[in-house]
Design brief:
Length: about 300
């Protein structure tokens, strides 16, 4: 007999990510009048699955000693939490999605109360600076959000660092005007609470290989929500050799709380030319931006 506690998942404060499942096939989304989302999908093996999620919307600002908002999730379609198969009599009241455009969008809808529910999918677990070596690393994660109003914002800038062979990509993440950051991280730089967020950096057609490749993932910094990374043609770093200098760069970050994941993408800067007045002016402006961010991490402050 399956234990009820094993099928009802309550997201913890240390893992407020809206990840539902990996490699879901043909997912659909419905929401009932009680504010419960029904996500239906099939596994790679063709097995039909249904889960319910409820109990959270938007996000809290970083607050010490407080848990970030998180969904309650029942992977049995209702039996684990309500002792009945809710999915069999589920009545969808959600309307066509009327929210803002989002990266990695799969499907979404807008509830009668005006809040938005969205499914997104992307490869969050990719192996840095190489091809995926495990199914989890290669998986496409299905991620659920429930939000009102604005989503998190990414402000991103590019600069040159040390010499012409290195691009610096740095920015700031905010939600409703408040920086997004956590209060602790592991020795590997992973957040230890529900407020911290990892910033995932991808590079296109770089020294790591053709197409998009994961370059790195690092936490936003307290107290400003700042993040930074460098993309070099050939530079020794914590992974061995950084060859991430590409034709384009992309950043994706899980939204705070249960808000949508957000992304930024742009072409890389041209090679530095001290005789190019446009590039010189850009460099000076970026130096002013870095000073204004006033981030305590020397990796970002020294850009």
């Amino acid at each position: 007999m399956l234990c009820i506690a094993a099928v009802l998942v309550l997201a913890s404060a240390a893992n407020a990510s809206p990840l539902l499942v990996r490699d879901a096939v043909s997912p659909t989304l419905a929401v009932d009048a009680q504010g419960r989302a029904l996500v239906s999908y099939r596994t790679k093996a063709g097995q039909a699955k249904r889960l319910l999620a409820w109990g959270a919307v938007d996000a809290l600002p970083p607050t010490p000693g407080t848990a970030q908002v998180a969904f309650q999730v029942d992977y049995t379609g209702g039996w684990g939490a309500f002792r009945k198969a809710i999915w069999k009599t589920f009545r969808n009241v959600c309307r066509p999605y009327a929210g803002p455009p989002l990266a990695w969008f799969v499907t979404g809808c807008t509830a009668p109360d005006g809040s938005h529910w969205v499914l997104q999918s992307w490869q969050r677990g990719l192996r840095p600076q190489g091809r995926p070596s495990t199914p989890v690393q290669a998986a496409w994660e299905l991620r659920l959000s429930h939000f009102t109003g604005d989503v998190a914002q990414l402000e991103v800038w590019q600069d040159w660092k040390y010499d012409t062979k290195i691009n610096a990509v740095f920015g700031r993440m905010t939600y409703r005007g408040v920086p997004v950051y956590g209060f602790g991280m592991t020795p590997k730089g992973e957040p230890t609470d529900g407020f911290g967020r990892l910033v995932y950096y991808d590079t296109l057609d770089s020294g790591y290989g053709p197409g998009w490749r994961r370059a790195d993932a690092m936490s936003t910094h307290a107290p400003g929500g700042v993040f930074c990374a460098i993309f070099a043609r050939n530079l020794t770093d914590r992974f061995g050799t950084n060859k991430g200098f590409g034709s384009r760069y992309r950043i994706t970050v899980s939204g705070p709380g249960v808000t949508p994941d957000v992304s930024w993408e742009d072409a890389s800067l041209p090679l530095w030319d001290a005789k190019n007045a446009v590039l010189v002016a850009h460099e000076r402006e970026m130096n002013r931006v870095v000073q204004a961010l006033a981030d305590p991490d020397p990796r970002c402050a020294a850009l």
